[in-house]
Amino acid sequence: QRWTRLPPGSTLIRVRADQLRAAMVVGLVRGGRIHSPAVRRAFRAVPRHVFLPEFSPEDAYRDEPIVTKRDDAGRPISSSSQPAIMGIMLDQLDVRPGHRVLEIGAGTGYNAALMAELVGPTGSVVAVDIDEDLVRGAEEHLMAAGSFSVRLVTGDGALGYPEGAPFDRIVLTVGSWDIQPAWWRQLVPGGRLLLPLSVRGSQLAVALDLVAGPPPGLHSVSVRSCAFVRLRGTGAGPDSSRALGRDGLAVQTADERPADPRAVCALLDAPGPEWPSPVRLAAVDLWDGLGLWLAVQQPDICRLLVSAAASDRAPSLLPVGLDGGTVGLLGSHGLALLVPGSRDGAGFDRRFPVAVRAYGPDGAELAARLAGQLDTWAAAGRPTATDLRLRAYPAGVAPAASSAAVVRKAHSQLVLDWPRNSVPSSPILER
Ligand SMILES: C[S@@+](CC[C@H](N)C(=O)[O-])C[C@H]1O[C@@H](n2cnc3c(N)ncnc32)[C@H](O)[C@@H]1O
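# S-adenosylmethionine complex -> structure
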């Protein structure tokens, strides 16, 4: 409140903002979010608070995402992403001086300004956003920050920006369901595409290098877990979450098979037996570790999500303390879910006891498979997104027999495996 009454350019604000920014960067480096000295320097140089004029410098320099626009239903559609994930992704993107970079999801313009620092005077940054009001805002913020080299464009990023192609780097700061053909086409040979990509409900920040082949493809050089708002426009993917209409719950399944909410409610109303597991889980394991393992391995994965406002109404179903939901397997006549293993809270390792509970006639069979997956994942060393390898090919190129999992999209198919934890496999590809 105090700060918002001061003019944004006042010396007091600037000095305070400099201190807060320095502290934020120290936190990001100490927390292992930024490794590259160039990225660290960019974060030091670009004033985040100038891109968030409605917020105090205190808020702007907290390591948190800040929602800047919502749709009519109140869902976030634009935000300044959490600095931690921005740092991680800028490290993944490996922007070099002189690079030509395309950003899809200009938002406030902050990330574009950071990348303008990284490409320097010999490079270029184009940032596209689908909403004209956001582009106008970003323009103002960039001017106020003294960052004059970014080119802002209003448009649908699913089409890339052919006028500026080819690019050394294309980065999406918005979640995508698929890899659009325009992005492949607009990369230079050996160029890098970085995008938050959805894999059966998990979202992964995947840095992919364009490889000539044969067969030509995009091969991951690094994978991290992330959570971005979704792409709108022609590239918007299917939404496979369905509200259950009770207790603020929703069920999310793999993209191609949305669940019938009434059938899920009927299953939940008939809980069957429960088996405690020796494996304990941390909150993050529902999305990244085990949750991601199931997403890759089991096409019938489902997640039960609970809105924060309703979490007190659905406590018995959700492992205590685990954030926002639980994970399981869903069939036509059965469901298996992870539930709290006992009334005990988390141990010193922040891991909770869990059990597998069966629902419906096929529940026991699904529960046995879920418990088996939990054991296999734990025995494989509890792999996370960082351990995952992802290779993407155009939709027409079919991977033949291989131990890797294949997730099919409209324009691409993803071949996923855990090279450190399984027998390395290289899928044979057939046209
Ligand atoms: C998380 S915000 C990006 C934050 C931004 N990089 C920053 O530093 O402030 C995601 C942005 O993607 C934009 N967006 C959504 N769909 C898009 C599309 N099809 N093309 C371009 N931008 C899109 C949204 O309007 C939103 O501003």
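# post-check
Residues 77-81, 104-105, 107-108, 110-111, 128-131, 134, 156-158, 173-174, 228-229, 231-233, 235 surround S-adenosylmethionine (CB under 6 Å).
Residues 241-379 form one domain.
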